[in-house]
Amino acid sequence: MMKIMFVLLFAVALLVDPTVGKSTHSTSEHNLNFIIDLVNNYNKSITKQEPEVEDVSHLAEGSSKCGDKFFCKVHDILHKRQHKDEKAIMRNLDVYNRAQNFQCSEVLKKVNSTGITVQIPDLLKHLTICSQHRNLIWANGSNP
Prior knowledge:
By secondary structure, the protein is mostly helical. It has helices at residues 2-16, 25-45, 68-81, 87-99, 104-107, 120-139, and strands at 53-54, 117-118.
């Protein structure tokens, strides 16, 4: 009898608020989609005179591509730049990293610099690709 009551209560909760049954990564997925949109809009406004940033392509490729090291490093780079037009991207990366329980201060201790610099659109291209990669993994039911 108690099981039936619970099932009925849950069914009513789903009718009232369909997000009750959603998995916890949906917020992170939404956040990544927002980052993709922000990057696309920001890329349209960038001039060629932007200072170069550290290359992160090695963190966006290979067997551990688009992991915590990548997202923490991109956040760190954007944070150091303190560019007003990048604040929304940085803020959403911060929310994403926290939702994933990334301990960025610890993770970044294990990330070595390549000494290579690239234009900001290249960094943002990798951010878009990695965000899409994570969303694809979630869409397939895996945990990134």
